[in-house]
Design brief:
The chain has helices spanning 9-17, 43-54, 138-148, 157-160, 196-204, 271-276, 284-301, 305-318, 323-335, 339-352, 357-371, and strands spanning 59-68, 74-83, 87-96, 104-111, 115-122, 125-132, 168-178, 181-190, 212-218, 224-230, 236-247, 267-269. With 372 residues, it is of the alpha+beta class. It folds into two domains: 9-256, outer membrane lipoprotein receptor (LolB), chain A (Clam); 283-371, Serine Threonine Protein Phosphatase 5, Tetratricopeptide repeat. Helix 1 packs across helix 3 (138-148) and helix 7 (284-301) runs parallel beside helix 9 (323-335). The protein is globular and about 75 Å long. Strands 7-8-9-10-11-1-2-3-4-5-6-12 form a twelve-stranded mixed sheet.
């Protein structure tokens, strides 16, 4: 599988942090800085040096803390395991803040090199989504990582620093002490206006424009231990921190990256939805509709179907021509045994997307049941 490894640091931060979440603190929360004369540190040479070193890391496991504030504010901690080539498993407990504060879920992200999986558990309720990553183009692969909250290739952030483009500057802020190890602090900063792609992604996912990103990279091993991105006012937008890591384990059980679907739990395949996702300028109505759609998804995965129905209806009011909210609303009705309402929404979803095999199957089943 060939993936697009060279993405900007600003984009990489958003991808890595995605929709999952929780890291404590800002720059002042890290260990006391031992800043040297950064003018003597050549960013290009350090990037090249770190890229060579990080290639020696064949596997690792440890703790991960994450935070994202847009489009939703989530914080959490968990475990991460990685094995080449580009296989990941992240399992963490997330807590929501703000309007979704009553959400508290366990999330497992798994990438086996071909398929991206997201498992969400809330009590006895469980939902599984998957995306056939290898069948998406590079832009939609990035969108998949943002939507499902995981970057399958964070080690490539070192390489991505060489492809920032003319709109960004790259500096070495200095050398600091982080978790008792020396790290380079690299800063990518937006010099002027954001690129068209950055603007469109921000509009689509209802999040602020990232104006600055920082990456803490090990001096000895070139490993990216921490990454943060900031908004116009300097506020932290996304943050990921890897700690207590064990590198190059002698053996990793292949089952660490296997996904077992519990009995009675259906799997939603989001590949086709991502393929159909319109890229390009996003109007405010579409962006707001997507916000309600995803909020409905959070409620649905937590088993709060009344809240999910409310959000899906708001999305439909704004963009009635989108099949996704109708499809999801039908399932929320189905879970509440509101079968007549579910049938109507499945019919609309099919009219908007005749290739929706899942909606067609459930519609046939419901019509049959209603005739009995």
């Amino acid at each position: 599988m060939k993936t697009n490894a060279k993405v900007s640091l600003v984009a990489s931060v958003g991808v890595l942090a995605g929709a999952c979440g929780g890291l404590v603190g800002t720059l002042n929360a890290i260990a006391v800085a031992e800043t040297r004369n950064s003018a003597a540190l050549d960013p290009a040479k350090i990037v090249e040096e770190c890229e060579k070193k990080v290639q020696e890391i064949k596997s690792f496991r440890g703790k991960i803390s994450m935070l994202t504030v847009a489009p939703f504010k989530f914080a959490g901690e968990g475990e991460i395991i990685f094995g080449r080539p580009h296989k990941y498993r992240i399992e963490c407990k997330l807590r929501a803040m703000g309007e979704l504060s009553k959400s508290s879920v366990e999330v497992v992200f798994t990438f086996d090199g071909e398929t991206l999986w997201q498992q969400v558990r809330s009590g006895s309720h469980s939902v599984i989504d998957k995306v056939d990553y290898s069948k998406l183009d590079s832009q939609r692969q990035k969108l998949a990582m943002i939507k499902y909250g995981m970057n399958c290739k964070p080690l490539d952030m070192i390489r991505s620093l060489t492809d920032l483009g003319e709109g960004h500057s790259l500096q070495v802020v200095g050398i600091e002490t982080l978790d008792d190890r020396k790290v380079y602090v690299l800063r990518a900063e937006l010099k002027g206006s954001p690129t068209k792609e950055e603007q469109e992604t921000a509009e689509l996912f209802r999040r602020p424009i990232v104006t600055q990103s920082r990456l803490w990279v090990g001096v000895e091993d070139g490993f990216p231990y921490k990454v943060e991105s900031y908004g116009v006012g300097g506020e932290v937008l996304y943050s990921v921190w890897l700690r207590d890591l064990q590198f190059n384990m002698s053996q990793i059980d292949p089952r660490s990256f296997a996904v077992e679907v519990p009995p009675g739990v259906s799997v939603k395949d989001g590949t086709d939805e991502l393929k159909r996702m319109r890229l390009g300028p996003v109007d405010s109505g579409t962006a707001e509709a997507m916000q309600h759609y995803w909020e409905g998804g959070f409620h649905y995965k937590a088993g709060r179907y009344d809240d999910a129905i409310r959000e899906y209806k708001k999305a439909i009011e704004l963009r009635p021509d989108q099949a996704g909210p109708h499809h999801s609303l039908a399932f929320a009705y189905y879970k509440k045994q509101m079968y007549e309402e579910a049938i109507k929404e499945f019919e609309v979803a099919l009219r908007l997307n005749p290739e929706n095999k899942v909606a067609r199957r459930y519609l046939t089943r419901l019509r049959s049941e209603m005739k009995k």
